Amino acid sequence: MTPAPDVLVIGATGSLGGATLAALRERGRGARVLVRRRRPDLVHPLTEQVVGDLGDAASVRAALVGIRAAFYVSPHEEAELAYARRFVEEAERAGVRVVFAGVHATRRTLAGRLEGAVVRRIMPHYRGKLAIGALIEREATDAVLLTPTAFFQNDELFLEDIAAGVYPAPLKGFSMVSTADVGAVAARALLEPGFPPGTHRVVGPRSMTGAEVAAAWSRALGRPVRHTGDDAAAWARTADLRLAAGRKGEDYRGSFAGLGRHRLTASAKDVARTAALLGRPPQDYADWAAEVVAAGRVPVTAPTPA
């Protein structure tokens, strides 16, 4: 009989929660997930689904029964700060350690406060998410806060464009990271009581411009892919076509706008620390692109983007 899980994953249907759940399964460890309705795609011998809602205190309380550590990622919703506050309150009441992944700049150091000021200035749409990280840092006992950079997997939005020979996203220079690497670190933090609390940056091995990303796809596909992200009008058309409506779409648009104007790079120290957390070097974007192509996920043909 599979033992009852002592780990809870919030956001298991999303990118980070899904990657964390996958990393736990790879280690043979079970997890409970909180979902708004039962999900056939989450059915697995190591996964227990609990139906509930972050907006309902009773649901959160029930999901935390018997749990030792919980992974929390904020949904793209207007009430995200209220959800986070409720979750932290219930986790503290239950004695559950919170492992958070998202936008965060620690307020415990001068460097962190300066970083937060920079993020608020160049990406003002993240002010709400910075408030969530600050709340968890301030009020959750022994919390682990993982602060990843942008994800390789965001570029899955543009696979049809890439197949047509275009990488459309504006990117001045940024250190992207695989969600699988973030999930692997989160799984460690959930499973290891001795994992150090505090803020941990999780980054990719190098910073890349849009042209360098396009070159990586050219090598993976064996045919030219050019970067068009410097063309504001072309990017606007692509964004309207590829990015979702609502709060999530707004967050994505704001992120890409910031990445098109500013270089946001990771230091060698950040890369070394990420490698230490993983027990190996973080995955390179070019290797991820090659995996996507090898898996047949890039359309063979696609219409040329407008």
UniProtKB/TrEMBL annotation:
InterPro entries: Ergot_Alk_Oxidoreductase (IPR051604), NAD(P)-bd_dom_sf (IPR036291), NmrA-like (IPR008030). Gene3D superfamilies: NAD(P)-binding Rossmann-like Domain. Coiled coil: none annotated. Residues 7-227 form the NmrA-like domain. It comes from the Bacteria. This is SDR family oxidoreductase. It comes from Amnibacterium endophyticum. The lineage of its organism: Bacteria, Bacillati, Actinomycetota, Actinomycetes, Micrococcales.
